[in-house]
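User: Teach me something about this protein's shape.
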Amino acid sequence: MRPAVLMILAEGDQYGYRIVQQLAGMPIFGGQKPNAAGVYRCLRLMAAEGSVVSSWELSARGPAKRQYKLTAEGARCLATWIETLRDYRQALDGLLGLGQEILRKKGSPPPRPPCCCDSSCDPG
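Assistant: First, the predicted structure itself:
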């Protein structure tokens, strides 16, 4: 969740509830809304580490809202995450390639993608 939050804040300051909404739209969450309590816990930890700062925006109408902003340390953290994720993706691509090569040599058919339709789908 941390790199995703950093990416959102790299695009600009956001309120916590908007971060939760934007996370839900990211492919890694599969269209599912993340647990808001977990997002706020992550934001508090990131603030304690100096990756983000927050401030309260008071409004004459409605409750006060906490806005989060990426710090220079947070930008450096994001750059590190991007490199780490790139390395991880390369390692996974290598592992997948090896598995596919083994299956090809054994004459096994490639694995079928998961069925995306309803339960009446017959995979056979």
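Now, about its shape. Residues 20 and 39 are 7 Å apart (CA to CA). The beta strands are 14-15, 52-57, 65-70. If you'd like, I can walk through any region in more detail.
User: That's plenty for now, thanks!
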